[in-house]
Structures are given as structure tokens and as C-alpha cells.
Design brief:
2 domains, alpha/beta, single chain, 10 strands, 10-stranded mixed sheet, 276 residues, Rossmann fold
């Protein structure tokens, strides 16, 4: 179980959001995304503790994505739920000897500003951006704006089913293709998760269902009995549900499903505790 969420967009720190000064925050995510999270954490005066708990890999059957891209003109809209999906589609177009202009000829919808930024990096434009950065909201925002006939959704192998489900119930013909998959890392990277907790952290940031799975693989049964002094923060309700399925305690859930929203929620959580 995973979550469609924002991972790559820099927003100003809201006034009164708190600095998290002096806190040590364990970040579980793919190594290529760790720098962005680390920068956001340092802006709050906290110390990022990075552990590459997951890696983003090619789809098990890339032919599925290639076939969809060869028939791109059949689709009214292409919907992206993560920057990883954008990157993999552009890479696949290049492997087919095609330019991003073919993608630009379709109407593009994205789950939030981070994914929009990924689209714009390739000289493209997102016509539609979800207002709440969730798969459900992306579906409802699209249906409120237009009633497409055919939609292509390139995404992770394991993903929130809400987006295609809502669209299909509205009569939209949806094609979902696997553009990439996430896997838990092993060896030294897994050992770093254990080491970080042994050395002491104030909070664990869970940014997807995949990071939850990686945490439980690294810690085994210990993931069900994390010390009370360690705050467990989930980026959204789908990640929270994944944590509870694995028996992992969740102390807070962000309402803005971005890394900045997660840090805002964590700062507010600590502020409320200090006032209490």
C-alpha cells in the first residue's frame, strides 16, 4: 500500500509554523529525494537523519508503458500522481526516440505543485492541479472541470486506487500503466535505519506506504514498539493506514500532503505539547 503525494516542491515557511530547532528527524525515502527533504528540515533549524529506505526502480514490464505512449493520442488527459511518474514517462519517451512534445499535446493533470514542477522541468505545462494534493481530490477536480472520455495514468506499481476508481465510476475510460516501482533497500542502508534509532531521533517521517514497509523490514518486530519519545509523523491518511496495517504507531497526520506540510504538522504537534 502506498500513497500518491507530493515530494518535490519548495514553499515558504508559513509564519508561526515553528522551527523544529534542535530536533533530529529521521527521513525514510528514496536517496534521490533525500536532499530536498534535508534542505526543508534544515530550514526549520532541525537536523535531518537520512536513511535511503526505498529505491525507485523501472517497471517490471516496461512494455506496458511503451505501448501506452505509442498510442498517446488516444487519451484526452494524462494524469500524474508523483514527480517519479513524470520522470519515468519522459525517460520512456526518450527510449522510444520521441520528444516530450507528444506528451505536451495532451492535457496534463497533476496531484500538486511538486508534480507540476516536475512537468515544468521538461518544458511542459500542467493544465490541472489538485487543490488538496490527494488522488481523490485530483479525480474530483478533473470531473468538476471536464468529463474526459479517455485518461492515461502512469504511476507506481503499488498505488492508491482511488483515482482510477472515481473516474471509472463517472464513466471515464481509464488506462493505468506501471511507470515505476519502489522497493525496500537492504544491506548497509537498512542498517542505517537501525543505527539512527539507536543513536536517538526525535521523530520519524513516513512519506509513503513504501517507507512504512521499509521501516518494518529494517526493524522487524521493533517497529511495533517504537519508544514513546520518538514521534511518528505520516504525510497523509493513506500512509497512516499503511502504518497501522503494519502495527506501527502514528502520532500525527499532515493535512497538507507535502514534505513542508508534514514539517508544519510536526512543529504544531510539538508546540501543542509544550503548551500542555
Amino acid at each position: 500500500m502506498t500513497e500518491d503525494h507530493e515530494v518535490a516542491h519548495r514553499e515558504p515557511i508559513p509564519e508561526g509554523a515553528g522551527t523544529l530547532a534542535g530536533r533530529r528527524l529521521l527521513v525514510l525515502r528514496a536517496s534521490h529525494q533525500a536532499d530536498e527533504a534535508a534542505e526543508a528540515i534544515r530550514e526549520r533549524g532541525a537536523e535531518p537523519v537520512l536513511a535511503a529506505a526505498i529505491e525507485v526502480c523501472d517497471a517490471p514490464d516496461p512494455g506496458e508503458l511503451f505501448r501506452a505512449l505509442c498510442e498517446l493520442e488516444r487519451y484526452d488527459w494524462v494524469l500524474f500522481t508523483s514527480p517519479n511518474g513524470v520522470d519515468r514517462v519522459v525517460r520512456a519517451l526518450g527510449a522510444l526516440g520521441q520528444s516530450t512534445e507528444r506528451l505536451g499535446s495532451r492535457r496534463i493533470g497533476v496531484i500538486g505543485p511538486g508534480t507540476r514542477a516536475a512537468v515544468e522541468r521538461y518544458g511542459l505545462a500542467a493544465e490541472l492541479v489538485a487543490t488538496e494534493y490527494t488522488a481523490e481530490n485530483l479525480a474530483h477536480t478533473l470531473l468538476a472541470r471536464a468529463r474526459p472520455e479517455r485518461v492515461l495514468i502512469p504511476r507506481a506499481r503499488v498505488a492508491n486506487p482511488a483515482l482510477p476508481t472515481i473516474l471509472e465510476r463517472a464513466g471515464v475510460r481509464v488506462t493505468v500503466v506501471v511507470a515505476y516501482e519502489t522497493r525496500a533497500v537492504g544491506g548497509d542502508d537498512r542498517a542505517r535505519v537501525v543505527q539512527a534509532l539507536e543513536q536517538g531521533v526525535d521523530a520519524i517521517l513516513l512519506t509513503s506506504g513504501s517507507t512504512v514497509a521499509a521501516l518494518t523490514e529494517a526493524l522487524g518486530g521493533q517497529a511495533r514498539a517504537l519508544p514513546a519519545r520518538v514521534t511518528v509523523a505520516a504525510i497523509g491518511p493513506v500512509t497512516e493506514a499503511a502504518a497501522r496495517e503494519h502495527g506501527v504507531r502514528v502520532d500525527l497526520v499532515a493535512t497538507d500532503h507535502t514534505i513542508h506540510g508534514l514539517l508544519d504538522a510536526l512543529a504544531a504537534y510539538y508546540a501543542a505539547r509544550s503548551e500542555g
